[in-house]
Amino acid sequence: MSERTIPLRALVLEDEWPTRNYLVKLIEDTHRAEVIGAVATLEEAREAMKGSPMDVVFVDVQLTATGDSRTGLDLIRSMAREPSAPMFVLATASSQHSLEAFDLGVVDYILKPYTEERVEQCLKRLLERRASRSQGPRRVVARRKKSLVFLDPDTIWAFEAADRLTFVHAPEGRFDIDLSLAAIEASFGRALFRVHRNWLVNLAYVKELDRDIAGATVTVGRDIGPEGRSIQVPVSQDRSKALRDALLENATGLRRT
To answer: What is the pLDDT of residues 92-150, one digit of tens each?
Structure first.
């Protein structure tokens, strides 16, 4: 299945439940997106995004029904500059916030009352944008002393920040790279998972997740075991559950409890 035909993972933040339910129906009727969550508050939206990565968040600006003085723009402001932030769409009754919204990188703006045609148009645009973002770099250039090393992005295991430097781990070895983890995350998008503030890993090469009272680690590479070609990567406590959920997504063989 091509990237274009994979539905977008969407979250809806709207405090009035009839409007929220109607927007969810319009989105899902297009078959271009799957609504993973529909919430009424900023806290619920942040919690939903922690548990499941989203491609797009539809955000209502005024959240007056919940008695919150904050607005949907506060969510966008807090996340807009993060490399792994989802795309944002303002879904609201007024166009007065359009200038700030686009300054923050909001991708689209749909006005109430919503229509099938407008939602369809918006999601088509988002799918095209996701496709262009997901292409990523065709080669990664690293350093080995005075030499340049050219790596295939699809074979890279992980990126590490240590001692004010950044390293790339691949079957060929560990090399210096002239990019920050934030810049790397922006280039690769959801192909990489941040398991620790100092580590990004390619989930395709995670071979083992080990959790105990001391914390969690993942084995990343080609093999498992002391003689295998792999590396051990620490997992932050606050990322452990999200990592486990990501690894179990589209997987079978384990009884879910």
So the answer is: 877 777 777 777 778 898 998 999 999 999 999 998 887 766 566 678 999 998 899 99
Longest CA pairwise span in the chain (Å): 62
Residue 204 phi, psi dihedral angles, 5° rounding: -65, -20
What pLDDT digit, counting tens, does each position of 189-232 carry?
667 888 999 999 998 899 999 987 767 999 999 887 666 689 99
SS3 219: strand
The correct CATH number of 3-134 out of 3.30.70.100, 3.40.50.2300, 3.30.565.10, 1.10.1740.10 is 3.40.50.2300
DSSP E strand boundaries for the chain: 8-13, 33-39, 56-59, 87-92, 108-111, 140-144, 147-151, 158-162, 165-170, 173-176, 192-196, 199-202, 206-212, 215-221, 230-235
| CATH number, domain 140-248, options 1.20.1260.10, 1.10.3720.10, 3.40.140.10, 2.40.50.1020 | 2.40.50.1020
In a 13 Å sphere around the CA of 145, the CA atoms on its Cβ side amount to 0
Sign (positive/negative) of CA torsion 95, 96, 97, 98? positive
What does pTM read for this prediction?
0.54
The encoded tokens of residue 185 equal 């995350």
Cβ atoms < 10 Å from Cβ of 230: 21
